[in-house]
Amino acid sequence: MAHYSISINLAGKKCVVVGGGNVAERKVETFFDFGASVVVVSPKLTSDLCDMAQKGLIEHIAQEYNPSHLDGAFLVVAATDDIEINKSISAQCHSRRLLVNVVDVPELCNFYVPAIVRRGDLVISVSTSGKSPAMARRIRERLESEFGSEYAALAALLGELRAEIKEFYPNIADRNLAYRRILDSNVIDLLADGRVEEALERARECIL
Q1: What is the predicted pLDDT for the residue at 202?
Q2: 79: nearest Cα among 101, 64, 58
Protein backbone atom coordinates (compact mmCIF):
# COMPACT_ATOMS: atom_id res chain seq x y z
CA MET A 1 0.00 0.00 0.00
CA ALA A 2 1.24 3.50 -0.83
CA HIS A 3 2.33 5.63 2.13
CA TYR A 4 0.98 9.10 2.97
CA SER A 5 3.70 11.72 2.70
CA ILE A 6 4.03 14.49 5.29
CA SER A 7 6.61 17.18 6.04
CA ILE A 8 8.02 17.25 9.59
CA ASN A 9 9.70 20.15 11.35
CA LEU A 10 12.92 18.68 12.76
CA ALA A 11 14.33 21.96 14.10
CA GLY A 12 15.69 21.29 17.57
CA LYS A 13 14.25 17.77 17.68
CA LYS A 14 16.44 14.94 19.00
CA CYS A 15 17.16 12.55 16.14
CA VAL A 16 19.15 9.46 17.09
CA VAL A 17 21.21 7.62 14.49
CA VAL A 18 22.60 4.27 15.58
CA GLY A 19 25.64 3.43 13.49
CA GLY A 20 28.70 5.33 12.40
CA GLY A 21 29.36 4.21 8.82
CA ASN A 22 28.77 5.82 5.44
CA VAL A 23 25.02 5.20 5.44
CA ALA A 24 24.70 6.72 8.90
CA GLU A 25 26.76 9.68 7.72
CA ARG A 26 24.28 10.44 4.92
CA LYS A 27 21.36 10.30 7.35
CA VAL A 28 23.14 12.53 9.86
CA GLU A 29 24.01 15.16 7.24
CA THR A 30 20.40 15.34 6.07
CA PHE A 31 19.01 15.67 9.60
CA PHE A 32 21.61 18.32 10.43
CA ASP A 33 20.71 20.28 7.28
CA PHE A 34 17.11 20.40 8.50
CA GLY A 35 18.06 21.76 11.92
CA ALA A 36 17.76 18.58 14.00
CA SER A 37 19.68 17.97 17.21
CA VAL A 38 21.55 14.87 16.08
CA VAL A 39 22.89 12.15 18.37
CA VAL A 40 25.06 9.40 16.87
CA VAL A 41 25.51 6.16 18.80
CA SER A 42 28.50 4.12 17.66
CA PRO A 43 31.95 3.16 18.98
CA LYS A 44 33.44 4.24 15.64
CA LEU A 45 32.64 7.00 13.17
CA THR A 46 33.57 7.93 9.63
CA SER A 47 36.12 10.72 9.39
CA ASP A 48 33.42 13.24 8.38
CA LEU A 49 31.24 12.30 11.35
CA CYS A 50 34.28 12.57 13.62
CA ASP A 51 34.86 16.06 12.28
CA MET A 52 31.23 17.04 12.93
CA ALA A 53 31.43 15.67 16.48
CA GLN A 54 34.69 17.49 17.20
CA LYS A 55 33.15 20.76 16.01
CA GLY A 56 30.16 20.21 18.28
CA LEU A 57 27.73 19.97 15.39
CA ILE A 58 26.47 16.58 16.55
CA GLU A 59 26.59 14.64 19.80
CA HIS A 60 28.59 11.42 19.69
CA ILE A 61 27.95 8.60 22.16
CA ALA A 62 30.95 6.30 21.68
CA GLN A 63 29.21 3.18 22.97
CA GLU A 64 27.47 0.08 21.75
CA TYR A 65 23.74 0.67 21.49
CA ASN A 66 21.52 0.22 24.52
CA PRO A 67 17.82 1.15 24.94
CA SER A 68 18.59 4.17 27.15
CA HIS A 69 19.94 5.90 24.05
CA LEU A 70 16.35 6.26 22.85
CA ASP A 71 15.35 8.40 25.84
CA GLY A 72 13.97 11.73 24.69
CA ALA A 73 14.25 10.84 21.01
CA PHE A 74 11.79 12.20 18.48
CA LEU A 75 13.01 10.07 15.59
CA VAL A 76 15.43 7.14 15.28
CA VAL A 77 17.41 5.61 12.44
CA ALA A 78 18.98 2.17 12.77
CA ALA A 79 21.97 2.06 10.43
CA THR A 80 24.19 -0.65 11.90
CA ASP A 81 25.47 -3.66 9.95
CA ASP A 82 23.99 -6.05 12.54
CA ILE A 83 20.43 -7.08 11.66
CA GLU A 84 19.71 -8.34 15.17
CA ILE A 85 20.62 -4.97 16.69
CA ASN A 86 18.51 -3.24 14.05
CA LYS A 87 15.56 -5.52 14.86
CA SER A 88 15.96 -4.74 18.55
CA ILE A 89 16.03 -0.99 17.90
CA SER A 90 12.91 -1.28 15.74
CA ALA A 91 10.99 -3.28 18.36
CA GLN A 92 11.94 -0.89 21.16
CA CYS A 93 10.97 2.14 19.09
CA HIS A 94 7.62 0.63 18.21
CA SER A 95 6.92 -0.12 21.87
CA ARG A 96 7.73 3.50 22.72
CA ARG A 97 5.72 4.79 19.75
CA LEU A 98 8.76 6.49 18.25
CA LEU A 99 9.36 7.14 14.58
CA VAL A 100 11.91 4.59 13.39
CA ASN A 101 13.60 3.82 10.11
CA VAL A 102 15.75 0.73 9.67
CA VAL A 103 17.92 1.24 6.61
CA ASP A 104 17.02 -1.10 3.74
CA VAL A 105 14.55 -3.15 5.83
CA PRO A 106 11.10 -1.67 5.07
CA GLU A 107 9.17 -4.15 7.20
CA LEU A 108 10.94 -2.89 10.34
CA CYS A 109 10.13 0.77 9.64
CA ASN A 110 7.13 2.92 10.48
CA PHE A 111 8.38 5.66 8.15
CA TYR A 112 10.55 5.79 5.04
CA VAL A 113 13.03 8.48 4.12
CA PRO A 114 12.25 9.85 0.65
CA ALA A 115 14.76 10.93 -1.95
CA ILE A 116 14.97 14.71 -1.57
CA VAL A 117 15.68 17.66 -3.83
CA ARG A 118 16.11 20.82 -1.78
CA ARG A 119 16.22 24.35 -3.10
CA GLY A 120 16.07 26.60 -0.06
CA ASP A 121 12.61 26.26 1.48
CA LEU A 122 11.42 24.28 -1.53
CA VAL A 123 11.71 20.57 -0.71
CA ILE A 124 10.65 17.99 -3.27
CA SER A 125 10.32 14.46 -1.93
CA VAL A 126 10.13 11.28 -3.96
CA SER A 127 8.94 8.07 -2.35
CA THR A 128 8.14 4.59 -3.62
CA SER A 129 6.78 3.58 -0.19
CA GLY A 130 9.92 1.57 0.43
CA LYS A 131 9.57 -0.52 -2.72
CA SER A 132 12.54 0.85 -4.67
CA PRO A 133 14.93 3.48 -3.28
CA ALA A 134 16.91 3.17 -6.54
CA MET A 135 13.87 4.31 -8.52
CA ALA A 136 13.33 7.23 -6.14
CA ARG A 137 16.98 8.27 -6.53
CA ARG A 138 16.71 8.16 -10.33
CA ILE A 139 13.66 10.42 -10.29
CA ARG A 140 15.41 12.74 -7.83
CA GLU A 141 18.34 13.07 -10.25
CA ARG A 142 15.95 14.16 -13.01
CA LEU A 143 14.31 16.69 -10.72
CA GLU A 144 17.70 18.10 -9.69
CA SER A 145 18.43 19.01 -13.29
CA GLU A 146 15.00 20.60 -13.78
CA PHE A 147 14.75 22.71 -10.62
CA GLY A 148 17.68 25.06 -10.16
CA SER A 149 18.58 27.56 -7.45
CA GLU A 150 16.11 30.08 -8.88
CA TYR A 151 13.34 28.02 -7.27
CA ALA A 152 14.81 28.73 -3.85
CA ALA A 153 14.60 32.43 -4.69
CA LEU A 154 11.03 31.98 -5.93
CA ALA A 155 9.95 30.31 -2.68
CA ALA A 156 11.54 33.14 -0.71
CA LEU A 157 9.84 35.77 -2.88
CA LEU A 158 6.41 34.17 -2.53
CA GLY A 159 6.94 33.93 1.22
CA GLU A 160 7.77 37.63 1.32
CA LEU A 161 4.58 38.48 -0.57
CA ARG A 162 2.29 36.09 1.28
CA ALA A 163 0.95 38.55 3.88
CA GLU A 164 0.55 41.22 1.21
CA ILE A 165 -1.46 38.92 -1.04
CA LYS A 166 -3.58 37.70 1.86
CA GLU A 167 -4.42 41.27 2.88
CA PHE A 168 -5.23 42.28 -0.70
CA TYR A 169 -7.41 39.22 -1.36
CA PRO A 170 -9.44 38.01 1.66
CA ASN A 171 -11.00 35.32 -0.52
CA ILE A 172 -8.77 32.25 -0.91
CA ALA A 173 -9.86 31.63 -4.50
CA ASP A 174 -8.76 35.15 -5.47
CA ARG A 175 -5.44 34.62 -3.66
CA ASN A 176 -4.84 31.43 -5.59
CA LEU A 177 -5.46 33.27 -8.86
CA ALA A 178 -2.88 35.89 -7.85
CA TYR A 179 -0.32 33.18 -7.15
CA ARG A 180 -1.07 31.61 -10.51
CA ARG A 181 -0.49 34.91 -12.28
CA ILE A 182 2.91 35.19 -10.61
CA LEU A 183 3.87 31.61 -11.39
CA ASP A 184 2.72 31.93 -15.02
CA SER A 185 4.71 35.13 -15.52
CA ASN A 186 8.41 35.64 -16.27
CA VAL A 187 9.28 36.01 -12.58
CA ILE A 188 11.18 32.71 -12.54
CA ASP A 189 13.24 33.78 -15.57
CA LEU A 190 14.17 37.05 -13.88
CA LEU A 191 15.25 35.16 -10.78
CA ALA A 192 17.32 32.76 -12.89
CA ASP A 193 19.16 35.81 -14.25
CA GLY A 194 19.75 37.11 -10.73
CA ARG A 195 17.41 40.09 -11.25
CA VAL A 196 15.72 39.76 -7.86
CA GLU A 197 14.38 43.32 -7.51
CA GLU A 198 12.89 43.21 -11.00
CA ALA A 199 11.31 39.85 -10.18
CA LEU A 200 9.75 41.28 -7.03
CA GLU A 201 8.38 44.26 -8.96
CA ARG A 202 6.96 41.98 -11.65
CA ALA A 203 5.35 39.75 -9.03
CA ARG A 204 3.67 42.76 -7.43
CA GLU A 205 2.28 43.72 -10.82
CA CYS A 206 0.78 40.24 -11.10
CA ILE A 207 -0.97 40.59 -7.75
CA LEU A 208 -3.25 43.37 -9.02
Answers
A1: 98
A2: 101
Determine, yes or no, domain membership for 31. Answer: yes
Within-domain flag for 155: yes
Task: Establish how many alpha carbons lie within 13 A of residue 29's alpha carbon, considering only the half-sphere containing its beta carbon.
Answer: 12
Element (H, E) at 101: strand 99-102
pTM for the full model?
Answer: 0.85
Check whether 94 has a pLDDT greater than 90.
yes
Mark whether 73 and 103 lie in a shared domain. Answer: yes
Residues 188 and 199: their CA atoms lie apart, in Å, by: 8
Number of domains in the chain: 3
Contact 13, 31 (CB under 8 A): no
Of all residues in the chain, the percent with pLDDT exceeding 90 is: 91
pLDDT value for 48: 98
The residue segments making up the domain with residue 95 are 14-113
Return the ∠ at Cα 42 (arms to 6 and 68), rounded to 5°.
70
Position 162 in a domain:
yes
pLDDT at 1 over 80: no
If asked whether residues 59 and 135 sit together in one domain, one would say no
Cβ neighbours of 108 (radius 10 Å): 19
pLDDT digits (tens, 9 = 90+) for 127-158: 998 889 899 999 999 999 999 999 999 999 99
Q: Does residue 8 lie within any of the structural domains?
A: no
Which whole-number Å values give the CA distances from 140 to 49, 128, 131, 149, 187, in the listed order? Answer: 25, 12, 15, 15, 25
Residues 31 and 98 in one domain: yes
